Amino acid sequence: MPVSVRALQQMAIYLGIMTGGGCAVMYYLMQKNFARSEYYRLAMEQLNSHHIALERLGAPPVKAHNIRFTDRSNRIDKSVAQIKIPVSGAKSAGYLYTSSVRDAVLSRWCLQEVVLQLKDGQRIHIFNTNDETQQHQD
Question: Which helix (DSSP H) or strand (DSSP E) does residue 108 occupy?
């Protein structure tokens, strides 16, 4: 039984729409899952508690934008997470560079470093494990 060209066109359009919609939903869910991760939340908490960084951004509120999955600055494996989070406020915008390691014993992520780089090139060091270690030793 031959199928008409019109029916094939309609089927192709339908499948194209379903595929595109499925990809969009998957992208949204991946972003949402990423924003729930412990290493992401810890970095955002550090940013939200750093008064100088908030002032330079013109925040609160700080707006975190979608992560670019193709950016080579974003590397995550079982034990190390290095991510670049796009953030903005009323005055400025930039990227929050974070580095975390997974503590196998406690089964949780520990921040190593958090740095905010603004669009104008200014870098604000928000958190560094070495700084914390030195404070506890003094």
Answer: strand 108-118
